Amino acid sequence: MSDKNNQTEIIKTGTILFLITAVAAFALAIVNSVTAPVIEGNNAKKQAAAMKNVLKDAAEFSQLTLDSQIDKSVSAIYSAKNAQGDLVGVCVSVTSSGYGGDIDMIVGVSTDKKVTGVDIISQSETAGLGTKAAEPAFKDQYIGKGKIDKVVKSGAKENEIDAISGATITSKAVTKGVNTAVSAAEEVLAKEALK
Amino acid sequence: MNTNKNLSVVINGLVKENPTFVQLLGMCPTLAVTTSLKNGLGMGLSAAAVLTASNVLISLLRKLIPSKVRIAAYIVIIAAFVTLVQMSLNAFFPDLASQLGIFIPLIVVNCIILARAEAFASKNDVLSSALDGIGTGLGFTAALCIISTVREFFGFGTIWGISIYADKIAPIAIVTMPPGGFIVLGLLIALINYIAAKRKGDKAS
Fold first, then answer.
1. Is A127 within 8 Å of B66 when comparing Cβ atoms?
2. ipTM of the complex
3. Interface test with A, best of B76, B82, B103, B177 (most A CBs within 10 A)
4. Mean pLDDT for all residues in chain A
5. Burial label, A114 (beta-carbon count in 10 A; 0-12, 13-18, 19+)
6. Residue B128's pLDDT band (cuts 50, 70, 90)
7. Beta bridge partners of B80
8. pLDDT band at residue A128 using 50, 70 and 90 as cut-offs
9. Residue A16 counted as domain residue
10. Domain count of chain A?
11. A17 found inside a domain
12. Which of A139, B5, B164, B186 is deepest in the core (most CB within 10 A)?
């Protein structure tokens, strides 16, 4: 008899817990159906704004398929066309590992393989030191340059970058990301030129 | 009498049993997000919303939830509300959501919320539970705002992102880093204990 009581109690307890989770899942599904399109729109807008920021001549972007030769740290490449429909360059989404974690950035590269802009999308570098990588004073150094040979403490020459003081690892990480992006862009642009 | 009691529930959570400064609950988000006033306020209000909603629902269901699985049931309810808040923040306040990052989902394991569910909402009626949620939530928010104002002012030289002296004197960068969080929190608790002890002494004499 007590066995039977025990069984009903287990079933009752299980049913109540199941009902609570079911209601919770249902409520989440409804809210998700409302917010998911908005979130997607926000992300797309953010991405487009970031791409426009690094490649100012561009008006239209289309995502390219990545082939196996391209470095694994590149997550997406977009070809950029101006309002007349001419290819003006590519935007490369690339991840580089910095001092505090991954640094996600977008690098714009023009058809003559020069960097047109760098934008840091997300990073977790040391506040006040590494986070300065997102400031124009540092990231605008890349503009007009191709691949970077060296990160120096000060007095950067052609194809060199002045490091952020106190954040050499961050500076090198961003540079590595930019170099990877330029290589990827070179490959893609070479292929686009054949078309 | 009733209004008095209700008010005392709110005041209790806000001051006497302030979750951060008195009970020292929820230290992880407290130290992590209080680098700027904007983040502190956003985190505090999000946690307060989850706390109030979960308190109300748990109080409503307190007779239905079997005591053997109550913790599991509370966690499901809290997690559902946190996910709701996270999705809404992502959709409607994307900047704040990206600033708070991982700490929004971590509200689920914020012990303040589970503590209030277990200690208060599971034993009290809906109205008191709602008021307890509001009081404790606002207490948490107020504490985060105080800590983050101090840290932002000394660490970045700004308040609410507006520069006060940032361009004139270099701010103390360590205040924005984790060790600075501990230091500021410790100093603030010391200050609050000092004031509380002094007031007690005044009353006694």
1. no
2. 0.74
3. B76
4. 87
5. middle
6. very high
7. none
8. low
9. no
10. 1
11. no
12. A139
Tell me, yes or no, whether A140 lies in a domain: yes
Q: Which of A174, A119, A112 is nearest to A144 (CA)?
A: A112
Q: How far does CA B179 lie from the centroid of its chain?
A: 20
Reported as half-sphere exposure (CB side, CA atoms, 13 A), residue A141 has a value of 27
B77: closest chain A residue by CA = A24
Task: Scan residues 24-53 of B and list those with Cβ closer than 8 Å to A.
Answer: 35
Domain spans in chain B, listed from the N-terminal domain onward? 3-204
Q: State the pTM of this model.
A: 0.73
Residue A39, chain B, CB below 8 Å: the answer is: yes
| Local structure of A77: helix, strand or coil | strand
Indicate the helix (H) or strand (E) that contains A189.
helix A168-194
Dump pLDDT digits (tens) for B72-124. 999 999 999 999 988 988 888 888 787 777 778 888 888 899 999 999 999 99
* Among chain B residues, CA nearest to A29: B84
Which residues of chain B neighbour A24 with C-beta distances below 8 Å?
A: 76-77, 79-80
Selection from B110, B2, B117 nearest residue B70 by Cα: B117
What is the reported pLDDT for B205? 63
- Within a domain: A75: yes
